[in-house]
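ok, trying the design again with the full structure, not the truncated one.
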């Protein structure tokens, strides 16, 4: 869980192979699934990694295969957010 008064501004993303604008993809989970998510990560990675808290350790990327395993195991699904770069000429002074 990450709670802060922070602003993340994306200033660049490489164009996609088809030439369209690039972006970042964020997978966001509701706070009420945190215990289930933590248990899943412990079960999946305790034998291969050393960590105190699997969420705060920032060791794991849940790719499409792991997100599918998470859903199949405990029914947890992420909210997907696409973040596009901020273009300075569109930002008012």
């Amino acid at each position: 869980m990450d709670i802060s008064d922070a602003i993340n501004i994306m200033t660049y993303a490489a164009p996609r192979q088809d030439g369209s604008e690039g972006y970042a993809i964020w997978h966001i989970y509701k706070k009420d699934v945190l215990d289930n998510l933590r248990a899943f990560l412990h079960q999946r990675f305790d034998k291969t990694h050393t960590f105190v808290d699997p969420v705060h350790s920032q060791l794991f990327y849940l790719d499409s295969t792991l997100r599918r395993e998470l859903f199949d195991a405990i029914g947890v699904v992420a909210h997907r957010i696409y973040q596009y770069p901020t273009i300075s000429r569109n930002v008012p002074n």
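Keeping the full-length input from now on. The radius of gyration is 17 Å.
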